[in-house]
């Protein structure tokens, strides 16, 4: 009984936060919009086409990300090679890139002046490439984690029962990985479905999603009724996906510590080819645009790098550091509380996805309506950061909690540890890797552009990302170079953040497989 | 640690609210030398809090939504495309211009600060290499020779995009304008979300393949100013076509229901001061409204249009929403 | 001394403790014997404080524990899967409870190492727990439970995951340790051999009730009813009692019985017979089996006499 009460108390914190920062603003916006829907809103062919397109591109990206990501992840999970752990850490890097900069990187490769000589601009290939750039790493990470939960003994058993490596994959590894993959794909779907996205930027407004429509309805036309109706429609559609995700995640719980198969060097020619192919694919889809950006920044010359010495840049760096740290702190507290409370209630688990499925522009305008006095306060801005960052921590920790068998904390209790002590000495250390993984994602979100640009801001709050956009807001080669240099700095910053956050603790290092 | 910092942040923001503060709402492109702002703060005795509310259109909507409880005392950056909307919503205090010499451009009920032109830019190198003549009218852009060469911003999500649409409507007449847009669509116009996207991913000068982009008349000058090796000539040029030039006048006004009236009024006058007027062109690439202000020599490289097609702000207020949705229907929706 | 008084606990429809009362004296080992799912493990968790009883009292040394938090009870519980902490090495696992009792780390480690040495695990201190064999894990778990000098030791199927050979050698060691520790212990098992080998007294549980409780010999000499009799290992259960092996006499002088089935055991053979529609199972030692030099086969008839005077009547009848 006591446990239930304390969980309810724990749930209060994230719930209050979600209500104050997400639901109440949306409700306020809907209220402001009143009832006056445009009569033909849902009978508009164009809008219907956008909805269908939003769904289609999200679904196609999911299929492609799975088809490419799974073999790639298998190679990364099973073969040892120098730099493997670093590559797994760096997989989050695309997340940090402002979409416009990523588009510049992509065009530097496949644009009219691209180094590959292959002009794919305005073809569907580039759209899909753009979506994969952001989402493939997500699937790869999930699949790597999934494959690390396949006990070595089970694989060995399959092999002794006459399975080839290929059959063993389908009959042993695939069933284990399936729920993980499904949950990662849900996330990919949500991102593609409700985002502005690189693909749309590369494809032009013909390929805009419904979210773009909502954005222009709210920000330009002030048609809150239609926007609210669309936002609710999206909420229902993607909320269903989020609920599916939560359900899957709980199903995939495998309490206990498994001893996974340690990666080994690729031995045969086929294995080496597979590994090399995987690395080439990864480089092509995830690294190439980033490298193109870094390469262009490096070749920009010393004058371009002088931007680093400017007061604006230093202030932006300091802000980025400060805001990310604060957002991470808040995300850590909220995420932990949410994850602990969500052990009990499935709906609460699904609620962690609320920040992903709500239309950002609706929330931003709703917050403005709801708290006009706070609209330009740092607290609200940080609240917005935390809102978008904390679900990653909640998600990751909730999954890890599923993996802690109840008898471990119980054993600690019988050995004289109070409930908080049992948590601190037994559960918490076991949650560490997942917690850090969630924090890394949260950091990527906080460092990346996301929707904070929709909120009121002040010049003295300029972060690296906003500075990059400012530079790209004016013409000139030097502006472009400065943006590219700043993007490279952002990447460096993000890399160090990921490496620090996910630095394996001394004790874990010998068992660290992901 | 985190909690401490958070507390500190909360306390400082709470403390800050107690000092005399002038809240200035601006669009995200606002920029002014720090020394000038500091000088104003010293002279007026108030702290200036600049609040950036996104693109100008977004900013006006935020102002309208919060009119019961204004988020600012003074607003800068409302232009003639948005003035009517703001006035109809009643969010602006009628603000009279400071007494003194006449200015080049005015805004009814607001104090004009700067102006500029939205127009087509072209990539000089591209046209030279392709040996293609520059188009002499908007109509020529719909000919096969110019297929797939133009990128515009979506007027539903971008201020220059909207300005360009307004110019075509004014310059060609409403019906011919939308007929022209239809032909332009058939000739492969690309629509980008905003200026940065169009200029940096679609314009052939940068990452893209299209040598004609909707931009500003000062962009060629800025290209030179922000070039790496100081160029003698701009790499881009203005394509000043009938129906393709919009004059944008930006101004400042007091927000209805805002506080700090005296300081707000001082700020309005401050934006008209010679020092600010001289600083603005370099910071925001707009022309000062006060005549006789010495411009940075680089502005000589930007050709100032002699003619433009700009509907008056009342007409814009009444019709632009209808024009934008019609544009969306003609350019984006047809074919689905 | 541990006293359970009228404990009740139900999960919805499933009753796991129904006015259950039991005592365990100091230095005594009580085995809880019952089929899977009869509530044995829940009972242990209630005693340890991990589950709350719906009603009833748990007293240890005369003090009511019912409302105390698990960490305040000084009751050690050894889990079925040992629940060793995977993020800690062997030494830290064993020292865990000592550190919780605010012992200086150095002292805690010294005691942990001593406890490990006593269980023959010297040199294992820095090993990760998942690299240990089942028997080693079991001994680490025992050391972890005993090193804090608990006032009561609870053991949940401690041998179920071990192989038969290891089980026997460890059971002997267990008995010695428990006797030396002089603390009351409760052992939960579904294996009657284990219960009889380790416990001073055995309580047979069925659906949350103690059906019968007593020393192993008492149980064997007077099972309460047919269910208890068959659960503690009697094969030939009749309506009013059981026929022990000694009640059966073999030889050609006796009426014939049909051999239905013959199974080899580790020592001797098990024979299933029918005689006048009655079914019997006999365990023959190697020496008894020697009466049949040609061996026994299904379908064969042999003489079987039954000495009804040796019938053990049910105590509850």
Automatic annotation (TrEMBL), chain A:
Q: Which family does the record claim for this protein? A: Belongs to the binding-protein-dependent transport system permease family.
Query: Has keyword Glycoprotein?
Result: no
Organism, by scientific name, is: Pseudogulbenkiania subflava DSM 22618
Q: How does it sit in the membrane?
A: Multi-pass membrane protein
Q: What is this protein called?
A: Thiamine transport system permease protein
Domain ABC transmembrane type-1: start-end pairs: 51-243, 317-501
Gene3D superfamilies per record: MetI-like
Q: Where in the cell is it found?
A: Cell inner membrane; Cell membrane
Q: Which UniProt keywords apply?
A: Cell inner membrane, Cell membrane, Membrane, Transmembrane, Transmembrane helix, Transport
User: Which residues belong to the signal peptide in this entry?
Assistant: none
One Gene Ontology cellular component: plasma membrane
User: Any transmembrane segments, and where?
Assistant: 53-74, 86-111, 123-144, 180-204, 224-248, 274-294, 314-334, 346-368, 374-393, 438-457, 477-501
Domain of life where this protein originates: Bacteria
Q: Which GO terms describe its biological process?
A: transmembrane transport
Automatic annotation (TrEMBL), chain B:
List the keywords (alphabetical).
Answer: Signal
User: GO BP, one example?
Assistant: thiamine transport
Asked if ATP-binding is a keyword of the record, the answer is no
Gene Ontology cellular-component terms listed: outer membrane-bounded periplasmic space
Cite a single GO MF annotation.
thiamine pyrophosphate binding
Which CDD domains does the record cross-reference, listed alphabetically? Answer: PBP2_TbpA
A Pfam match: SBP_bac_6
Under which name does UniProt file this protein?
Answer: Thiamine transport system substrate-binding protein
Automatic annotation (TrEMBL), chain C:
Q: Which UniProt keywords are listed?
A: ATP-binding, Cell membrane, Ion transport, Iron, Iron transport, Membrane, Nucleotide-binding, Transport
Q: Cite the InterPro entries for this sequence.
A: AAA+_ATPase, ABC_SmlMolc_Importer, ABC_transporter-like_ATP-bd, ABC_transporter-like_CS, ABC_transpr_FbpC, P-loop_NTPase
For this UniProt entry, what's an example GO CC term?
membrane
Q: Where is the signal peptide?
A: none
Question: One Pfam annotation, family name?
Answer: ABC_tran
Sorted alphabetically, the Gene Ontology BP terms of this entry are:
quaternary ammonium group transport
Domain named ABC transporter: which ranges?
A: 2-232
Protein's UniProt keywords contain Iron: yes
Under PANTHER family, the record lists:
SPERMIDINE/PUTRESCINE IMPORT ATP-BINDING PROTEIN POTA, SPERMIDINE_PUTRESCINE IMPORT ATP-BINDING PROTEIN POTA
Q: Which domain of life is it from?
A: Bacteria
What are the recorded GO MF terms, alphabetically? ABC-type ferric iron transporter activity; ATP binding; ATP hydrolysis activity
Report whether Iron shows up as a keyword of the record. Answer: yes
Question: What is the protein name stated in its UniProt record?
Answer: ABC-type Fe3+/spermidine/putrescine transport systems, ATPase components
């Amino acid at each position: 009984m006591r446990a239930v009460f304390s969980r309810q108390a724990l749930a209060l914190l994230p719930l209050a936060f979600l209500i104050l920062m997400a639901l109440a603003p949306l409700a306020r916006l809907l209220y402001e919009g009143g009832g006056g829907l445009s009569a033909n809103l849902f009978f508009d062919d164009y809008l219907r086409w956008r909805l269908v397109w939003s769904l289609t591109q999200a679904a196609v990206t999911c299929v492609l990300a799975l088809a490419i990501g799974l073999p790639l992840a298998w190679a990364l999970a099973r073969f040892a090679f120098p730099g493997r752990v670093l590559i797994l850490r760096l997989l989050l890097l695309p997340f940090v890139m402002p979409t416009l900069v990523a588009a510049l990187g992509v065009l530097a490769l496949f644009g009219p002046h691209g180094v590959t000589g292959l002009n794919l601009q305005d073809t569907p290939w580039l759209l899909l490439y753009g979506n994969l750039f952001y989402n493939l790493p997500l699937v790869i990470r999930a699949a790597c984690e999934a494959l690390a939960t396949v006990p070595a003994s089970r694989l060995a058993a399959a092999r002794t029962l006459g399975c080839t490596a290929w059959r063993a994959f389908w009959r042993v590894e695939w069933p284990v990985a399936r729920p993980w993959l499904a949950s990662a794909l849900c996330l990919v779907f949500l991102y593609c479905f409700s985002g502005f996205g690189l693909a749309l930027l590369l494809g032009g407004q013909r390929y805009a999603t419904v979210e773009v429509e909502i954005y222009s309805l709210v920000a330009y036309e002030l048609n809150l009724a239609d926007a609210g109706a669309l936002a609710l429609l999206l909420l229902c559609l993607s909320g269903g996906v989020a609920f599916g995700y939560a359900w899957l995640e709980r199903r995939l719980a495998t309490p206990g510590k498994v001893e996974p198969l340690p990666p080994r060097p690729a031995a045969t020619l086929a294995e080496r080819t597979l590994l090399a192919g995987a690395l080439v694919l990864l480089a092509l889809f995830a690294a190439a645009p980033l490298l193109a950006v870094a390469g262009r920044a490096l070749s920009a010359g010393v004058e371009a790098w002088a931007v680093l010495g400017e007061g604006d840049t230093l202030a932006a760096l300091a802000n980025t550091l400060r805001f990310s740290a604060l957002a991470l702190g808040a995300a850590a507290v909220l995420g932990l509380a949410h994850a602990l409370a969500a052990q009990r209630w499935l709906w609460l688990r699904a609620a962690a996805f609320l920040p992903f499925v709500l239309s950002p522009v609706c929330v931003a305008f709703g917050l403005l309506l709801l708290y006009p006095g706070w609209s330009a306060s740092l607290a609200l801005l940080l609240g917005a950061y935390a809102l978008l960052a904390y679900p990653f921590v909640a998600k990751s920790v909730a999954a890890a909690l599923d993996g802690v068998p109840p008898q471990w904390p119980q054993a600690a209790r019988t050995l004289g540890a109070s409930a908080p002590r049992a948590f601190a000495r037994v559960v918490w250390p076991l949650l560490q890797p997942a917690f850090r993984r969630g924090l890394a994602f949260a950091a990527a979100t906080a460092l990346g552009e996301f929707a904070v640009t929709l909120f009121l801001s002040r010049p003295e709050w300029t972060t690296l990302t906003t500075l990059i956009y400012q530079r790209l807001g004016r013409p000139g080669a030097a502006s472009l170079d400065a943006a590219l240099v700043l993007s490279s700095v952002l990447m460096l910053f993000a890399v160090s953040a990921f490496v620090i956050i996910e630095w394996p603790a001394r004790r874990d290092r010998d068992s660290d497989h992901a | 640690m985190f909690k401490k910092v958070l507390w500190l942040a909360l306390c400082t923001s709470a403390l800050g609210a107690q000092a005399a503060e002038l809240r200035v709402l601006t669009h995200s492109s606002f920029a002014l030398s720090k020394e000038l702002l500091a000088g104003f703060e010293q002279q007026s005795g108030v702290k200036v809090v600049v609040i950036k509310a996104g693109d100008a259109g977004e900013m006006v909507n935020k102002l309208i939504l919060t009119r019961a409880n204004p988020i600012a005392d003074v607003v800068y950056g409302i232009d003639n495309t948005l003035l009517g909307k703001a006035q109809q919503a009643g969010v602006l205090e009628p603000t009279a211009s400071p007494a003194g010499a006449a200015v080049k451009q005015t805004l009814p009920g607001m104090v004009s600060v700067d102006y500029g032109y939205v127009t087509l830019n072209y990539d000089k190198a591209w046209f030279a290499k392709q040996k293609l003549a520059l188009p002499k009218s908007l109509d020529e852009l719909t000919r096969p020779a110019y297929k797939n060469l133009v990128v515009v911003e979506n007027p539903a999500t971008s201020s220059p995009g909207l300005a360009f649409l307004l110019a075509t409507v004014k310059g060609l007449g409403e019906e011919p304008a939308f007929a022209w847009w239809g032909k332009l669509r058939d000739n492969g116009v690309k629509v980008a979300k905003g200026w940065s996207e169009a200029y940096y991913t679609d314009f052939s000068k940068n990452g893209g393949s299209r040598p004609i982009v909707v931009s500003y008349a000062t962009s060629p000058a800025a290209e030179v100013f922000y070039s790496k090796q100081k160029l003698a000539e701009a790499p881009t040029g203005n394509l000043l076509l009938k129906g393709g030039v919009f004059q944008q006048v930006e101004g400042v006004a007091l927000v209805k229901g805002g506080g700090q009236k005296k300081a707000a009024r001082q700020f309005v006058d401050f934006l008209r001061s010679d020092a600010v007027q001289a600083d603005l062109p370099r910071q925001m690439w707009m022309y000062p409204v006060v005549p006789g202000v010495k411009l940075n020599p680089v502005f000589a490289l930007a050709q100032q249009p002699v003619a433009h097609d700009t509907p008056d702000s009342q007409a814009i207020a009444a019709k632009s929403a209808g024009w934008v949705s019609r544009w969306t229907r003609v350019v984006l929706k047809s074919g689905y | 001394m541990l006293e359970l008084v009228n404990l009740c606990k139900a999960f919805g429809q499933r009753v796991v403790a129904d006015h259950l009362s039991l005592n365990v004296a100091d230095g005594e080992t009580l085995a809880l014997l019952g089929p899977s799912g009869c509530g044995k493990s829940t009972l242990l968790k209630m005693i340890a404080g991990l589950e709350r009883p719906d009603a009833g009292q748990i007293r240890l040394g005369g003090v009511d524990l019912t409302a105390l938090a698990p960490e305040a009870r000084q009751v050690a519980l050894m889990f079925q899967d040992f629940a060793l902490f995977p993020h800690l090495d062997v030494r830290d696992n064993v020292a865990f409870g000592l550190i919780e009792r605010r012992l200086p780390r150095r002292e805690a480690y010294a005691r942990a190492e001593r406890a490990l040495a006593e269980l023959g695990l010297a040199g294992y201190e820095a090993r990760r727990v998942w690299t240990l064999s089942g028997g080693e894990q079991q001994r680490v778990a025992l050391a972890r439970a005993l090193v804090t000098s608990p006032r009561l030791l609870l053991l949940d199927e401690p041998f179920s995951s071990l192989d038969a050979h290891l089980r026997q050698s460890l059971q002997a060691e267990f008995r010695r340790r428990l006797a030396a520790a002089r603390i009351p212990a409760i052992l939960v098992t579904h294996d009657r051999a284990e219960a009889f080998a380790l416990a001073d007294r055995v309580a047979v549980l069925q659906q949350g009730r103690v059906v019968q409780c007593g020393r192993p010999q008492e149980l064997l000499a007077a099972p309460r009813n047919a269910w208890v009799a068959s659960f503690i290992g009697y094969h030939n259960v009749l309506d009013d009692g059981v026929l022990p092996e000694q009640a059966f006499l073999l030889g050609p002088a006796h009426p014939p019985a049909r051999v239905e089935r013959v199974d080899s055991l580790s020592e001797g053979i098990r024979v299933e017979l029918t005689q006048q529609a009655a079914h019997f199972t006999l365990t023959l030692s190697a020496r008894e089996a020697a009466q049949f030099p040609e061996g026994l086969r299904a379908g064969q008839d042999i003489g079987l006499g039954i000495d009804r005077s040796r019938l053990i009547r049910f105590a509850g009848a």
